[in-house]
Design a protein that fits this description.
Length: about 350
């Protein structure tokens, strides 16, 4: 009894370390607990989990297989083996373990395990590039737990990828209508689909709500600006983008969108200034330089356009699109490219 009691304490320590991400310490405590209580399924199971988390997949696999020899219906171990086989390329074996876990969990009405099994089956289908199977498993996952936002976003994404943008938007519309607290990721996906469907006024409403709940999220602020552009409110969009530039000067897309809005409003000097500033501040500035070229060409500043194209090619000589554009520009000016 004392041995078992000591093992329980060690398991408690191990769980604490595992939750804290201290995987090696967790492995140590679980191994010590197994020494004191070698017949404890729970102790063996958590040792297997800790080993898997530490990257010792072969050691973890042996632990879970040992548990299943003792208890063939241990669904948690079946799912862990499915994860290990999926990670190491054994997709057929991973699917087999998932299906075994799903079957047993249905018998005992264990909805949580059913959910995990179908989530894993979805990931296996995705690894096989089976988008139809992926979609089917996600649908089953959501039937089990309609409140799982991550699964819903994955389902909407695959519907959109399959060319069913309307179905994808319908899923998110219904979810949003339930009035829950939504993550920034949900709002981003929802707003992208609304904009794609050219539902500017609706997108504007959702963007206002999103920013109210997640005021510091720059991706939502950018989408707020895009919804204003979609409803023809370019001046308001400019104000939003300018606020994002001040708060998050490292985001290249903001300068790009602000520059385009100014260009569309024929504020060419402002567009050039914004794009140049962005090119100086962000690491991957090629899209900004290409937009700058477009502004120079529009105002017929061919010298600046040529210099900027040459700057892009200095960084990436294999950029065939830029090389072709430079050749055309030089030809129009009566030059030939070296």
């Amino acid at each position: 009894k004392t041995q078992a009691s000591n093992a329980d304490v060690l398991v408690m320590y191990g769980k604490t370390e595992l939750r804290a991400g201290n995987v090696e310490d967790a492995v140590f405590y679980f191994k010590e607990a197994v020494k004191k209580a070698p017949e404890s399924m729970e102790t063996l199971y958590f040792l297997g989990v800790a080993l898997r988390e530490s990257g010792s997949l072969d050691g973890a696999r042996k632990i879970f297989e040992e548990i299943l020899r003792k208890n063939p219906d241990h669904v948690s171990s079946q799912l862990e083996l499915a994860r290990i086989h999926a990670a190491t390329g054994g997709l057929a074996k991973a699917q087999e373990y998932c299906e075994r876990a799903d079957k047993k969990s249905r018998e005992v009405k264990d909805m949580s395990t059913q959910f995990d099994a179908h989530r894993l089956l979805a990931s296996i289908a995705l690894k096989r590039d089976d988008l139809g199977g992926y979609k089917k498993e996600l649908e089953l996952t959501i039937q089990i737990n309609p409140d799982d936002e991550a699964a819903l976003l994955d389902l909407a994404a695959v519907e959109d990828k399959l060319g069913h943008a309307e179905a994808a938007l319908n899923y998110l519309d219904k979810f949003h209508g339930r009035g829950k607290n939504f993550t920034p990721a949900f709002y981003v996906a929802y707003l992208e689909l609304l904009l794609k469907a050219e539902q500017g006024p609706r997108a504007k409403e959702v963007a206002i709500e999103a920013v109210e709940h997640h005021a510091d999220d720059p991706s939502l602020m950018l989408l707020r600006g895009r919804t204003l552009e979609a409803t023809g409110e370019s001046f308001a969009a400019r104000e939003v983008y300018e606020a994002v530039v001040v708060a998050h000067p490292q985001i290249g897309e903001t300068y790009l969108r602000l520059g385009r809005v100014k260009r569309a409003d024929r504020d060419f000097e402002g567009a050039i200034s914004t794009l140049k500033t962005g090119a100086e501040k962000v690491e991957n500035n090629t899209p900004l330089l290409k937009e700058l070229v477009a502004v120079y060409v529009e105002i017929r500043d061919h010298n600046s356009a040529t210099a900027t194209l040459e700057e892009i090619l200095q960084r990436d000589p294999k950029d065939s699109e830029t090389r072709f554009q430079l050749a055309k520009l030089l030809q129009a000016r009566g030059y030939t490219e070296d």
